[in-house]
């Protein structure tokens, strides 16, 4: 058996957890007293561990075999979103084509492993994707626009394009996420998607959107709500997530104070997602 490992800043804990969510051999350990986590993935085959190393750096070493079944590494299963979307980690064209054949009514989105949040597996992303599908259906073929604040891998922006949005803007303050999102936009051959590096809290937009998605943390949302409200067309929809259950009341109150009204609140595990509107 082989183990791939590397140290990482603890701010990436959720991203690593999400990235290896389908791997039964993945272990994330907080290092006491430091803002660091150790990420390890136990692999039956050396080539598996080396493939992870090639992607993410770190080291590979052999370990004495224990319970092989426990450490079997699996590719995370695709995420199915209602009858409209399927998000997979395959970049291979043949695999994507066979998934498309199995799901003829769904658009296939490919988000291969990388260090940007948004494979579709995390509760926050999955909930926003569902609400985005519902929003697209409510448009009944009428053109719509999306602003995706904190785009990460670009998954929401790409989903919007697949769902028929005609003008999509996504931004992230992490330059690596922006590079990954741009790759994913090209890989998924979607048009009308613009991705830029920008800090939501300092960026100024001169325009409004039919739908604004913001899967950010509560503190960023609280500070950004006045801007989110200004970005939303009157009668438009706001989808917010990344809110911890314990912070939801305070966070959504800040949204209402900024002029938004929330009509749907979804709780999955410790995460809250909400749909709101601007009158
Ligand atoms: C939880 S992830 C969401 C990714 C993707 N939109 C999704 O739904 O899966 C949050 C993203 O927001 C970005 N972010 C956090 N604060 C930000 C800010 N102030 N301005 C721009 N991006 C920010 C992070 O870099 C990260 O990529």
General shape? globular
Q: What small molecules does this complex bind?
A: S-adenosylmethionine
Computed CA radius of gyration, to the nearest angstrom? 19 Å
Write the CATH architecture name of the largest domain: 3-Layer(aba) Sandwich
CATH class of the largest domain: Alpha Beta
Number of helices: 8
| Secondary-structure element pattern, one letter each | EHEEHEEEHEHEHEHEEHEHEE
- Estimate what percentage of residues fall within beta strands: 25-35%
Low-confidence stretches: 67-73
What is the structural class? alpha/beta
* Residues in helix, %: 25-40%
The main pleated sheet reads as: 7 strands, mixed
End-to-end Cα distance, whole Å, is: 59 Å
Strand order of the largest sheet: 10-9-8-11-12-14-13
Number of β-strand runs: 14
Rounded average pLDDT:
90
How would you describe this protein?
The chain has eight helices and 14 strands. It is α/β, with parallel strands linked by helices and 279 residues long. The strands form three sheets. The protein has a seven-stranded mixed β-sheet with strand order 10-9-8-11-12-14-13, sandwiched between helices. A four-stranded antiparallel β-sheet has the order 2-3-1-4, with helices on one face. β11, α7 and β12 form a beta-alpha-beta unit. α7 runs parallel beside α8. It binds S-adenosylmethionine (SAM). S-adenosylmethionine binds next to α4, α5 and β9.
